Amino acid sequence: MSKTNTSAAPGVPNRPTPSFGNPDLPPEGRLNTAGNPESLRSDGPRNQFIDSQFPSQLDPPATDISTQPFFWSSFNISPKRIQNGGWARELTSEDFTISEEIAGVNMHLAPGGIRELHWHQTAEWAVMTRGKCRITTIDALGRPSVDDVEEGDLWYFPAGLPHSLQGLGPTGAEFVLAFDSGKQSESNTLLLTDWLAHTPPDVLAKNFGVPQETFRNIPLNNLWIFQGTLPGSLAADQAAAGVQPHTEPVIFRLSRSKPVKENSGGRIQIADSTNFTISKTIASALVTIEPGGMRELHWHPNADEWQYYLRGQARMTVFNTGPKATTNDFRAGDVGVVRKSLGHYVENTGTDVLQFLELFRADRYEEVSLAEWFGHLPPELLMQHLNLTREDVEKLPKGRRGIVPV
Fold it and tell me: In 159-265, which residue ranges form alpha helices assigned H by DSSP?
């Protein structure tokens, strides 16, 4: 009877126990294929451009294990709805399944281009990424707001409150909207033109106290985005709308706000209901990371994190139960989602500054730092968990840094 060969393949190291940086059995990652290059063969059809954009998917670190729901998407692959006056593209939970708590829209309005008067069944949060925009709204107490916003500014419209957006000169406006429901689509809104076109003419006349003929030329199809004329001065529009100062402004200058954390590695600026009081369902952070810097190992206990990458390039590993750990790469225009309480870091892997937004369907920004947790444990407890010496523990940072210094 022949003896069964239980040895490893010729030239392939037999690794019977896990090792630091390669902790799993069966082992995963390229380094486990030393001596057996056939393990890496990939001769099938390939999109080499996509390969070049996702090095961490193509060649994951050996610390990655198993699989989990895909947490990368991008406005760059979302189709544009284009009309005279601007365009929009979106990512909802129908397109990006993991994005259950927040849906996102990337929109451009030409100078004078108007996103028609409308409202949503969800709250709308937005960040200006290029140009300038004039926004109008009115609250449930009948108080109007008319404001101009520019790059780095936010606005927030609570659910059900009507508003409009208009691009200003010289280049119009580009911005990203976020709704506090992953199902909300920008193509599924309550539009002024739709409502009036589907209201009996005698009811319109009775409601406004004017002859039916007043409305004889209203659009019979919705406008959604259309080209208008540039508005006059902000002061003139505010006066015409009857704007008066009130205690809950709908805009916030996030990029000009004082960082809550700042060091040589970067900074974190936060807008939530504590400093942007109207924003009661979406909290946000603007994160800037210098080359070589990293968003420290952490998690968020109160909501999923929806990320929008503004500039630079990044690598993020998400740690899940199982265990599962998956690494992916991000660039400008990309969107990531990290589910509530899952550990992660974000590392600047480029030569330029990395900047991205973190959004949460919550009234407050909350974070747990791994380093801060370590710093508030009895040393002996940590030593026994990680086989550290007391000298090792004393060298560890004692508090939250937000960004790892460079």
Answer: 192-197, 201-208, 234-241
